[in-house]
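Thread: Modeling a multi-component assembly for a lab meeting

Hi all, long-time lurker, first post. My supervisor asked me to bring a structural picture of a complex we are working on to next week's group meeting, and I have zero experience with this. I have the sequence lines for every component (352 residues in total). Could someone generate the structure of the whole assembly? Inputs are pasted exactly as I received them:
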Amino acid sequence: MVDLDQLVSEAQQSFSSTSDAVALEEAKAKYLGKSGLLTEILKGLGKLDPEQRKSEGAKINAAKTAIEGALNQRRNQLADDLLQARLSQEAIDVSLPGRGRGAGSLHPVMRTWERVEEIFHSIGFEVAQGPEIENDWYNFTALNSPENHPARSMQDTFYVEGHDAKAQSLLLRTHTSPMQIRFASNAVKTHLQQYGNLDDMPDIRVIAPGRTYRVDSDATHSPMFHQVEGLWIGKEVSFAALKGVYTHFLKTFFENKDLHLRFRPSYFPFTEPSAEIDVAFPSGKLAGRWLEISGSGQVHPTVIRNMGLDPEHHIGFAFGSGLERLTMLRYGVDDLRLFFENDTRFLSQFPA
Ligand code: PHE
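Re: Modeling a multi-component assembly
Sure thing. I ran the full set together rather than chain by chain. Output:
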C-alpha cells in the first residue's frame, strides 16, 4: 500500500511550488486527475476484501480531502497574489487633488457672432436667421446671379437631392445674402397687408449671421463657415451710410479707433457699385497690410425689385462678412482649420 501521508505532503509541496494557475492545474492532474495517483489507488480498492476496503477507502478519502484542501488553498493564494500585483500596478494616489470637470467656454467663432449681434443691435439693426438649405431663387436668381455664374456649378456648391414645392433646386446656401431677399420681401409683404401701400414703410435694417457652405478647403477656407449679412434699405440710404456704419462696426469690434478702412471697387451681381472692404491695423503683428474683411455695395435695382420694392423709391446697402476672418484677426489665429478640429488645447485659450 502507498504511504498516503507521504502522498498528501508531496501533493502539498508540489502545489505550493507552482507560481500560477496553469501550473497548479497541471500539478492537480497528477494527483486528482482521471489517471492521477489517487484515482489509481482507488481503483486498487476493488481487489481488497470488504472489511479492508472500508478502512482503506476511508483513509483514501481523507487523503483526497486533504489534497483537495491544499489545492483550493493554493488556488486562493495565487488569485490573491494576482490581485495584489494588479492593484499595486494600477495604484492610484488618492491624496492627489481631483482633476475637476473644467468649465466649457463659448467657441471663438460664436463669440464673434454674439459680439457682432451686440454691436449692430446697439445701432438699431434687427437680428434674423434663415435656412441653411436654400433654393435656387433665394441663393442665386433673386440676387441677380446669371444662369451661367460659376458659383452655381457643382464644383462650388453643395446641391441637395430633390427640389422644393416650386421645383427649385435645393442647395446649402453659399452665402447669407439670400436673407436679404427673405427678410426684406417678408417685411414688405407684412407692411402691405397692414397698410395697403408702402408710403410709410419703415427702413429695413437687419443683420443675418449664420452658417454657409462652399466646396472649398485650405488654411483659409473651410467647406462650412460663417458669415454675417447686413442690409439697410430706406428712402435715402447712401453709400456714405455704409461707410459710416461699417467703420463704426469695425472700430468697435476690434476696440481700436485708429483702424484704417479702405473701400476697394469690386464686383458682385447683387450690388452696384460694389466694394471690397479692407482693414489695416496701425500697429502690431498685422500692421501695414490691407486685409480683406467683407464684400459690400449698394443693393442692385433688380434685387430691390425682387424684394417687392421700387428702386425709384428705395435704395440701400448690403454687406457680407466672414465671421472666421473677423475672429482670426481679432485673436491672431492664422489657420482657420483650428476652429473646427475640436482640439481643447486650442479652444481652452478662449476662456469664458
Ligand atoms: N455674398 C457675398 C459673398 O459671399 C458678400 C456680399 C454680401 C457682397 C453683400 C455684397 C453685398 O462673397
